[in-house]
Amino acid sequence: MQEGAMQAWIESSQFSGGNAAYIEELFELYLDDAEAIPSEWRELFDSLPREGLATDVKHSEIREQFREAAKQKLKQAGSSAANSEIAEKQVRVLQLINAYRFRGHQHAQLDPLGLWKQATVQDLDPQFHSLTKEDMDTEFNVGSLVIGKDTAKLKDIHQALEAIYCGPIGAEYMHIVDTEEKRWIQQRLESQLGKPKFSDEERKKALKELVAADGLEKYLGSKFPGAKRFSLEGGDALVPLMKSLIRRAGKQGAKEVVIGMAHRGRLNLLINVMGKHPNQLFDEFAGKNTTDKAGDVKYHMGFSSDFETEGGNVHLALAFNPSHLEIVNPVVIGSVRARMDRRGCKDGSQALPITIHGDAAIAGQGVVQETFNLSKTRAYQVGGSIRIVVNNQVGFTTSKREDARSTQYCTDIAKMVQAPIFHVNADDPEAVMFVSQLAIDYRNTFKRDVVIDLVCYRRHGHNEADEPNATQPLMYQKIKKHPVPREIYAKRLLNEKVITEDDVKQLVSDYRDALDKGDCVVDEWQPMKAHSVDWSPFIGNEWDVDYDSSISKDELQTLGEKVSHVPEDFKLNARVGKVYEERAKMAKGDRKLDWGMAETLAYASLVKAGHRIRMTGQDCGRGTFFHRHSVLHNQKDAATFLPLTAIDKDQAPIEIYDSVLSEEAVMAFEYGYATAEPNTMVIWEAQFGDFANGAQVVIDQFLSSGEQKWGRLCGLTLLLPHGYEGQGPEHSSARLERFLQLSADHNWSVCVPTTPAQVFNMIRRQQLRPVRRPLIVMTPKSLLRHPDAVSSLDELAIGKYQNVIGEIDDLDSKKVKRVVFCSGKVYYDLLSARRDSEKTDVAIIRVEQLYPFPHEEMAEVLKDYQHVKDFVWCQEEPQNQGAWYCSQHHFREAIPDGAKLQYAGRAASSSPAVGYAAVHKEQQEKLVNEALSI
After folding, report:
1. What pLDDT, in 10s, does the model give residues 441-461?
2. Where's the Transketolase-like pyrimidine-binding domain (predicted)?
3. Whole-prediction pTM value?
4. Which of 722, 905, 720, 911 is nearest to 830 (CA)?
């Protein structure tokens, strides 16, 4: 609006004194949604002082301007009651439109069973806004309502709002702060007037997919009665929803889609979306064994296939998943990030994560919140994800909302990241398909998470052997009478003359015939092409496979100069500067290397050789104990510099991120990343080792057993600070015993390195050895700066990690009467005490790898002690913790026949450590003296 026109408009009767109240209301509406009011008002409010528009301060200054304008106008022309009433009604209409955008979902027809009892929302009643029946034929400006015209009768506006916001789609998006995103959603939703348009061919395809969803469940129910399958029945629309998502994603350029879901509908998805051959599933139901591994139940299994779309074939990957329902979500996101990095995709356009949740689980499992919190962070963003809730309206047996959650919707958790939430009635497949397209388009446009709440029901109990009527009698009386989605949609298409009765019968018959043949039933299925990453070099290899880990001292010195170089204009913190001065001396060979320098050289040598590295953890940039300092911070402008990125112009990338304050989601993310990318060294470091407790489900269900259950290789490395320093029970133990208890089938390696050279060679071994299994490391705290825990460049250049380190002092082995085995920091306490006491008849042997136990190396070290009968295992941890209970059978097998093995350490305890420094010191001295027989 031109300046002169604006002034004339301001001076009109709209600003007369009687209109001050409605202008204030219009202004409040503007603050909620600027696009909801007519453009001339928006321009006026935009021109007002910005400090008066903040929503967290009073609007008194703005109101005073309104009053002053009204007073001036009264002097000039007086007020017009008629104009005032019309203008006020106009504001009320805009408020009604806004109310539907905010709260229309609460009156939407979402529940196929009609059981939802939503509270009455007064805001959606025109009378609440002082709009009467007499106003229904009055023309009003529609503001930003997208109905194809600028003005309309109130009755037509109200009818449009009901159709858009209170039909089979309930949209929650007004919590989004960004106006552009809200306007985008409004345009897409409102332009359809609640009736999305699809061609007859698209509608026939949707019916065919509902026939498939229903047909598989009925087939399995009759062929394998009583067998658990976690039927999709009631949520059949998940099949056309998923296929619509994949088609749309492929059309827009996606090359890979990674899917994570729990049990409900998984078998249906495998057959009717992924393209798994039905006869393979039938063999699994029949109990035919197809693997020499431990295996898993059929509704936990993953699958991969290629799916044809207009934009080319899309590779589909359904992640393996245990019964911990939501833990697969960060695994999927991590897998997608790995695929993005491999493809050089920064915005997620080529890889899409889809996670499918249960209504009880998404509200009840904390890892959901943790995963949402990752969505826009540098280390974990994937350009948004699609979250689908198969909303059965009941968990296992809990159906009352007040027992299941503390929010109105199970999806309310998504509002924390301002994700739009589209609730949709699963009995309306066209609404479902429209929402699927809306979700993909929003995700690809704004690179944010989006949630689809597929409101449905489950026709049977939690599983097919369950009796749901026992706990949900009214719901299941309703379900028993309710037609299946296929029947409802077929009747709709019959009424609209899109199909005939014979067409429906033919679809049902053809699908059953296809199942009888056992062949693929997915039209879009394509023979899977080679993956973009080759796992073959790592398949079938064991720990003793040959590999080249040699490195010259000259190369180490060159790398040392690179990692200790800081640009001249980069001002370091004084303490960090001292660390880098010392590292420069270490690189020249003037000082022995400490832990931080050796670890950094390991990473430098790997990226120089072309091995990508990814490290995350809550303090991993500098290291919790101020030892790593891989990410430097300029004290002048807070700019960051990573010396490891400046090793060589042709080096591999290295990424080191301080993570969000999460263990479970972050570790699961890194597991997912590592299972999708064997050529990257993936490392997660705990702030303190015991913090890994928060991710125990990841350790138990994925890391320790993923290969045995699902054949999934994974090279994830966990760095877990561990060591008894008198700091109390919470920051002493990384719970070594738990990892050893889970050790079997050569599932991972568990190491406790005690020197910088050992950590250097351990890290290189993990990446260079053609084996991709997890590495669990008990990393030190005090040893990071211990004067004896140092190594020379020559020791690093040996290129070999020693699983066992024998006696280092010049003892006469024939005079040795006792041999002490130990691991970790306690070695230095034992060594110091023995030297101080000048004992020469006790040898100390370090076990640097506790699993797989190094029997051959141990036998070599013990050759000179075959005469010894007295052996001791010494540990800092309480007797019921640490390595004693899980590893003593290995020690007993290693010692000579007739020798005895004793324990020296803390007494059994329910707590990992004492909380008092004096008691800790006393205990430590006692266990050391006992071990050495002092």
Report:
1. 999 999 999 999 999 999 987
2. 593-786
3. 0.90
4. 905
